[in-house]
Structure prediction request, 374 residues.
Amino acid sequence: MSGGTHLTTARRVIIKIGSALLVDQETGAVNRRWLAALADDVAQFRARGQEVVIVSSGAIAVGRRHLSLGTEQLRLEESQAAAATGMVRLAHAYQEVLAEYDLTVAQVLVTLDDSENRRRYINARNTLETLLKLGAVPLINENDTVATDEIRFGDNDRLASRVAVMVSADALVLLSHVDGLYDKDPTENDDANHIAEVQGEISAAVQGMAGTSMSYDGSGGMLTKLEAARIAMAAGTRMAIADGTELNPLKRMEEGALCTWFLPDANPKTARKRWIASALKPAGTIVIDDGALRALNDGKSLLPAGVTNIQGRFERGDAVVVTAHDGREIARGITAYSANDARRIMGNKTSEIEGILGYRGRDEMVHRDDLVLS
Ligand code: GLU
Prediction:
């Protein structure tokens, strides 16, 4: 596959935009021309049926000028105040340029907590899935206003990779002002070689190329980009580090512009199934009848109707074991209902769930995408 194809064949793409590309560092103004061209790129993706999520930095850079905060290092609460002011303007700018293509922007602000707390993670995942299904373009940034030092991502490179994992994205593109990884710092070494592809894993040799400091790429630096690549690859998401300084950076990538691709061995689906099968500690057991057993073997989801017993205590989003009547393990999966709710709806038709629980949850108790047969 050529570099461009890695992008055009991705069903779901996350684009991370660095602050320096978007915001004039002197005036704090959003670079409208650049953003309009980016919207054009995004519209091309959508026209091809690809889903796009944007992770954008720049709230603090825009906001600080409007609050006349000057150019010196900001205190945490000043950055938070700046972000509150800047995010409104930033979101408005995205909304305006994407509206030209009839695309709807949906603002989603997240913190590190949201990607580590299981229930919030599942909620964020479900909301993003729903937005994408409805054709919107989620615009994500860190919720700087409420994040304290301890719960800050601090850099949107890692935030973007967590979001990519959350929505099982096929590809993640980090747009900044470097065109990829070099075997040594290209700003100091004329003979530095560009690396077009890193396959499978970030080896010690690759890690060494990033240097130890912020090295040749501003805020996040090459180190956080490699960290983002590691997170993305473990979930089967391929990632690119690409230069976004010119107009239409995504189109340029498609046409073969220099960049570095980090290519995982698995795809998001197989990586997720691997994770379900091995990494998760089951919190309980769902016992099913013969009809449900046949359905699972046919590749179908597990519906409440085929469930005869629930053992253990678990919450929505926890890992569970699915067994037959005789205790034989049939599958492992992620449950869409807590043990309490599962007990109430087991043996009932999907259409009866809402009447029993008082809310409309998922039709399946364990969706087939969240299920791995043993
Ligand atoms: N969340 C910060 C902002 O929007 C950016 C963090 C980063 O530059 O990676 O201003």
Q: What stands out?
A: Residues 19, 57-61, 83, 141-142, 144, 155-156, 219-220 surround glutamic acid (CB under 6 Å). The CA atoms of residues 104 and 319 lie 35 Å apart. Residues 213-218 have pLDDT under 50 and may be disordered.
